[in-house]
Design goal:
single chain, mainly alpha, rod-shaped
Length: 205
């Protein structure tokens, strides 16, 4: 074999060895690269899942706030209605008390001027008892009216607070639901499947 032939053969062997080395390197690196891409996608999906979980928690919080607001409005409305009913009842009872007291007072006053001393003294004593009972009944009615007024104030406070917090809760819930929908859409896009939803909320108020 000539010197040139040996040189060419040697060069060919070097080229072949180089090609084999390149191919082996590619075959060895391919799984590593594939695994790296898989890990990267898994990390991305995990982050998106975390975003969805946080968004769902925010939606749940806003829904609870909305429920509390509705409860305040309901209780406030009920307290106001009860207060009005009780106030009307107290007014009716007071009119009856005043009317009955006046009738009894006139009758006893007339008897107190009787020429019959015993009858007169008894009527005077009954007048004193009537006055004492009237004051007690009147005080009881005043207490009932005070409680009704207190109930009205509490009802108005609950109603006002409920309406204010409901507006805020509704606005916050609208934003949190939009955030959840966006997070879910990102997850669906990243997972390349519109069917892979992470517990997507179906029920909306």
């Amino acid at each position: 074999m000539s010197k040139n032939s040996k040189l060419n053969f040697t060069n060919m062997r070097i080229v072949m060895n180089f090609r084999i080395l390149v191919m082996l390197s590619f075959l060895l690196l391919a799984p590593v690269l594939t695994q790296a891409q898989t890990d990267k996608k898994a990390d991305e999906l995990k982050k998106l899942e975390t975003s969805i979980t946080a968004a769902k928690a925010k939606v749940a919080l806003n829904e609870r706030q909305l429920t509390i607001s509705d409860s305040l409005i309901t209780s406030g409305t009920q307290l106001i209605a009860e207060s009005k009913t009780e106030t009307r009842a107290v007014e009716a009872d007071r009119k009856k008390l005043d009317k009955d007291n006046l009738v009894k007072q006139k009758s006893l006053t007339k008897l107190s001027t009787s020429k019959d001393k015993e009858e007169s003294n008894k009527a005077k004593a009954d007048l004193k008892d009537l006055d004492i009972q009237y004051k007690l009944d009147s005080k009881a009615l005043s207490t009932r009216l005070k409680e009704a007024t207190k109930k009205m104030s509490m009802g108005n406070a609950n109603l006002t607070k409920g309406k204010a917090t409901k507006k805020n809760a509704q606005d916050a819930l609208k934003i949190s639901r939009a955030t959840l929908a966006a997070a879910q859409a990102k997850y669906d896009a990243a997972s390349n499947s519109g069917e892979k939803t992470i517990g997507k909320d179906k029920k909306k108020k």
